[in-house]
Design goal:
Number of domains of chain A: 3
Largest sheet of chain B: none
Number of strands of chain A: 7
Oligomer: heterodimer
Strand content of chain A: 15-25%
Radius of gyration of chain A: 26 Å
Order of helices and strands of chain B: HHHHHHHHHHH
Helix content of chain A: 40-55%
CATH superfamily of the largest domain in chain A: MucB/RseB, C-terminal domain
Structural class of chain A: alpha+beta
Largest sheet of chain A: 7 strands, antiparallel
Number of helices of chain A: 8
Distance between the termini of chain B: 57 Å
Order of helices and strands of chain A: HHHHHHEHEEEEEEH
CATH topology of the largest domain in chain A: Phosphorylase Kinase, domain 1
């Protein structure tokens, strides 16, 4: 490989996008050619700068709720299945304040919508389960890591009045924390975790020799759901939503124990 | 072991039957019934797509260089994505969403005629050679994020876009090629040019 080729390919090499043979050729060239080695280092350092120092514009919190409101509105307008044309006014429009009254919809639209609904049911079920399964995998991963890495708690305390303020200062929401010792699930502590692309609270409870990770983050919609149990890889997961928060309890305790845990937690939860 | 989960969602032919009846006989009094599957779809959509909100916002923000526009475009992109969610069967929700964010951003850029040609570039002239600088010099010049932002904002949007997709989102050449509808070879050469241009800007004192 000559210098011209090496320089042409060095970016692809740095991106890990070349085949194994070309990689080897480049590496042997870089070992022998000081000039190309310098170019390589300069490019590598620039890539490091872009990756690590360039601002990453996280979405402001209000954008999430804005989008959720807009999507809710979309459901309200579900009969209009043709997308509204994107115009400046659409891009500029303010948040909808009220849903269009559904009663004003025309009959033909209703029939059409109902037909679409049937199709949607079939599509949705598979996608919904896919999303849940992906999350379930993440949750089990977090649970296992918390036990493996000897990093069960960031704040180790059986006192809810210690754990809660600690979490409150670290999160952009205030998760409920209750001790369930009297129900046979003593609180061990709290931890920050990262799931579903956001920082979440993890409360750790003990059941005999087993641990339960209870992951909590704000619910995306006000819908309340009863518990749903998933069993995977020998772990039990129970998911429920109480209007304010999403709860995922993950453990290797039995399904019955985890249901008891959920009941105990809900019973002890201060009424809001 | 995914069986229990699937079992909970699949099947239920009875449910489907009852919905068919709704279509035929009970259209008038079933607003709620209509709303429910759409809400389920929304739940599924949100679960799959809202995790990528930061990525969507970051791309739009870099492309549009304006926070308000970025937020409007991201919201519009989510609405568009939801409307065509039924057609999404791929495994890569993030790339799919980013494609829509990108297209929506360009729609706005074109309409506002804000496509920035003040820094025209010539693909032949701006080769990748002759700019080797020691990494030390580079780091000295680019210590703070403001300086990098300033430099990146001077780049044409196809360069900003490809740098964000590759270095902030970690997309592969293949994913970028699909997203921007260009050949993979073009991804490599465009990335090289983008970095080369950025390097020049970083070495120019105060932009």
């Amino acid at each position: 490989m000559n210098c011209e080729e090496a320089i042409r390919l060095v970016d692809g090499y740095l991106d890990g996008e070349l085949d194994a043979i070309t990689n080897q050729e480049i590496e042997s060239h870089l070992r022998d050619c000081r000039a190309c080695q310098q170019t390589y280092e300069a490019h590598a350092s620039l890539i490091g700068v872009i990756s690590n120092r360039a601002t990453y514009y996280r979405a402001p919190v209000e954008l999430r709720s804005r989008i959720q409101s807009a999507l809710q509105k979309e459901i309200g307008d579900g009969s209009r299945q043709s997308p509204a044309p994107v115009t400046a006014s659409v891009l500029r429009r303010k948040l909808p304040t009220q849903r269009d009254p559904i009663f004003r919809m025309q009959w033909s639209w209703l029939a059409l919508a109902a037909t679409l609904v049937v199709a949607a049911v079939m599509v949705v079920n598979s996608q919904r389960s896919r999303g849940d399964q992906f999350l379930a995998t993440q949750l089990i991963g977090s649970h296992v890591r918390s036990l493996l890495a000897n990093h069960l708690t960031d704040v180790a305390s059986s006192d809810q009045h210690t754990v809660k303020p600690w979490l409150d200062t670290k999160l952009d929401f205030a998760p409920p924390v209750v001790d369930l010792s009297s129900d046979g699930f003593p609180l061990i502590g709290g931890r920050l975790d990262y799931l579903d692309n956001r920082t979440v609270a993890a409360l750790i409870y003990q059941r005999r020799k087993h641990f339960i990770n209870l992951f909590i983050w704000p619910a995306e919609s006000a819908m309340t759901t009863a518990g749903k149990t998933i069993s995977r890889q020998g772990y039990q997961l129970v998911h429920w939503v109480d209007g304010d928060f999403n709860y995922w309890a993950v453990s290797d305790v039995s399904d019955a124990d985890l249901q008891l845990f959920k009941q105990a937690f809900e019973k002890q939860l201060p009424h809001r | 072991m995914a069986l229990p989960l699937n079992a909970a969602h699949l099947g239920e032919p009875g449910l489907l039957q009852s919905r068919l009846k709704i279509v035929n006989f009970a259209v008038t009094k079933n607003q709620e019934e209509q709303g429910r599957p759409r809400s389920e779809e929304l739940g599924s959509f949100e679960a799959l797509m809202l995790p990528h909100l930061d990525a969507a916002h970051n791309l739009a923000r870099w492309l549009l260089r304006n926070e308000q526009d970025a937020q409007d475009v991201v919201q519009e992109a989510y609405l568009r994505a939801f409307k065509s969610f039924g057609g999404f069967h791929g495994a890569n929700g993030r790339a799919w969403l980013l494609t829509i964010v990108r297209n929506t951003s360009y729609t706005l850029l074109k309409r506002n005629k804000t496509i920035d040609f003040t820094t025209p570039f010539d693909e032949e002239i701006h080769g990748v050679r002759g700019e080797a600088q020691s990494p030390v010099t580079l780091l000295e010049h680019s210590e703070d994020a403001d300086r990098i932002k300033e430099a990146m904002d001077q780049l044409p949007e196809e360069f900003r876009e490809i740098l964000v997709l590759r270095h902030q989102e970690g997309l592969s050449y293949k994913e970028i090629a699909d997203l921007a509808q260009i050949p993979q070879g073009t991804v490599m050469s465009r990335l090289a040019r983008a970095r080369s241009r950025l390097r020049e800007f970083l070495h120019t004192p105060n932009g």
